[in-house]
């Protein structure tokens, strides 16, 4: 039965010239923490695949169904394989982290978790695992986006837009979360940090809508009436933000005038809504996160010290798309020209720089070039 769990996977393997040191294709298995192939996850997969092609990485993508027990079974099966991956990437779950990590340690499979245990207090609750490369030597790193920074920045954008219309009015904020994960807790932290900066903005309620359009729309309409109005809605996904937007229209509200709504993901429909000034903004860039990790893995196998022990730092931060900068960001949001991005150009193996530049500006510069056949010279 367990072998059947591994059947719905996508296997990508390609060879790219212009990679001078590595003599073999590194095998990386990525267990995605999703139970359905949404447009967001398809973007993540497509971008990761493009990066793997540029970096001569044999990438196996497995849908982990968003469930820690199923993921643990998949990892157990991988640990028993004769042909093991050179690196395993997956979402770390507190409840079974110690057991899973011990299994991989015994199998001698290097692994990286897409988690931030410290930020969510998971290091201090029962199932302690410490920090990477301490108790578990094969746990090389945590790789995560700064969801607190993303929520802070998105709420700041919403407040600024709302203040242009209603400069003196106390603002009511509704937060719509997708689940109870560590990322949701980090978003909550970011919201609280921004709210602490002024007295005239209050969080009236924080609700979980389980990433569902219908649920988010229903929740919004009920809570808008319960709190006798809401001025700002910050949703954990663009899908839920669009649900709130449609719910607001049904209540007779005019988006970007009576209410300001934003979400996460740089969803294509959200981009259209921003262009038509229906949604206020969208936070994103995290769809490139797995690709950036593959760049680091490539450098790791080419003798660069990119993973370190102890307390970890965010690997990337969020950027905000609004009406004013939409045109500049559209090439990334619509993700139509991945072949113009050469992810090898971002590696330390190529740049020989001490720090990575995983910025939006660096990506836009790559997209603006006519060819990615060769990385540009450092003097350009």
Give the helix/strand layout:
Blueprint: H1 2-5, E1 9-12, E2 26-32, H2 39-55, E3 57-63, H3 68-80, E4 87-90, H4 97-107, E5 111-113, E6 139-142, H5 147-165, E7 171-177, H6 182-195, E8 201-208, H7 213-226, E9 232-235, H8 238-250, E10 260-264, H9 268-275, E11 281-284, H10 289-300, E12 319-322, H11 326-334, H12 348-351, H13 360-368
Parallel strand pairs: 2-3, 2-4, 4-5, 5-6, 7-8, 7-9, 9-10, 10-11
Antiparallel strand pairs: 1-3, 11-12
Helical content stands at: 25-40%
- Order of strands, main sheet, comes to 1-3-2-4-5-6
Backbone CA Rg: 21 Å
Instruction: Examine the secondary-structure arrangement and name the CATH architecture of the largest domain.
Output: 3-Layer(aba) Sandwich
Taking the sheet with the most strands, its summary is: 6 strands, mixed
Protein name: Periplasmic binding protein domain-containing protein
Domain Periplasmic binding protein: 38-297
Subcellular location: Cell envelope
Pfam family, one: Peripla_BP_4
Describe what you observe in this structure.
Its main location: other. Keywords: Signal. It comes from Litorilituus sediminis. This is Periplasmic binding protein domain-containing protein. It is a single chain. The chain is an alpha/beta fold and 380 residues long. It folds into two domains: 2-145 and 287-368, Rossmann fold; 147-284, Response regulator (Rossmann fold), CATH 3.40.50.2300. It contains 13 helices and twelve strands. The protein has helices at 2-5, 39-55, 68-80, 97-107, 147-165, 182-195, 213-226, 238-250, 268-275, 289-300, 326-334, 348-351, 360-368, and strands at 9-12, 26-32, 57-63, 87-90, 111-113, 139-142, 171-177, 201-208, 232-235, 260-264, 281-284, 319-322. The protein has a six-stranded mixed β-sheet. A six-stranded mixed β-sheet has the order 8-7-9-10-11-12, with helices on both faces. Strand 4 (87-90), helix 4 and strand 5 form a beta-alpha-beta unit. Helix 2 (39-55) runs parallel beside helix 10 (289-300). The longest helix is centred in the middle third of the chain and has 19 residues, at 147-165. It is globular.
């Amino acid at each position: 039965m367990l072998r059947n769990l591994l059947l719905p996977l996508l296997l990508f393997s390609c060879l790219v010239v212009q990679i001078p040191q590595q003599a073999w294709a590194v095998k990386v298995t990525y267990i995605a923490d999703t139970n359905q192939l949404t447009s967001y996850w398809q973007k993540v997969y497509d971008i990761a695949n493009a990066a793997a092609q540029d970096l001569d990485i044999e990438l196996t993508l497995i849908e982990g169904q968003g469930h820690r027990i199923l993921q643990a079974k998949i990892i157990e099966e991988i640990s028993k394989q004769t042909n093991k991956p050179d690196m395993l990437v997956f979402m770390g779950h507190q409840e079974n982290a110690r057991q899973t990590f011990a299994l991989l340690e015994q199998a001698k499979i290097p692994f990286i978790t897409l988690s931030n245990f410290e930020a969510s207090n998971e290091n201090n609750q029962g199932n302690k695992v410490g920090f990477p490369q301490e108790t578990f030597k094969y746990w090389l790193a945590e790789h995560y986006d700064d969801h607190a920074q993303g929520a802070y920045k998105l709420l700041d954008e919403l407040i600024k837009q709302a203040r242009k219309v209603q400069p003196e009015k106390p603002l009511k904020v509704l937060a719509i979360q997708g689940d109870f994960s560590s990322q949701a807790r980090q978003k909550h932290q970011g919201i609280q940090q921004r709210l602490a900066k002024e007295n005239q903005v209050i969080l009236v309620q924080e609700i979980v809508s389980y990433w569902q359009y219908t649920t988010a729309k229903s929740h919004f309409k009920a809570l808008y009436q319960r709190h006798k109005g809401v001025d700002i809605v910050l949703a954990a996904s663009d899908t839920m933000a669009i649900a709130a937007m449609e719910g607001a229209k049904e209540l007779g509200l005019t988006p970007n005038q009576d209410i300001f709504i934003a979400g996460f993901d740089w969803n294509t429909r959200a981009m259209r809504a921003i262009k038509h000034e229906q949604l206020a903004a969208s936070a994103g860039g995290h769809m490139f996160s797995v690709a950036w990790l593959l760049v680091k893995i490539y450098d790791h196998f080419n003798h660069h010290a990119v993973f370190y022990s102890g307390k970890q730092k965010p690997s990337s931060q969020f950027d905000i798309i609004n009406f004013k900068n939409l045109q500049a960001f559209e090439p990334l949001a619509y993700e139509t020209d991945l072949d113009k991005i050469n992810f090898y150009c971002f590696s330390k193996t190529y740049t020989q720089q001490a720090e990575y530049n995983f910025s939006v500006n660096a990506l836009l510069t790559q997209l603006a070039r006519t060819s990615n056949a060769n990385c540009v010279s450092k003097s350009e």
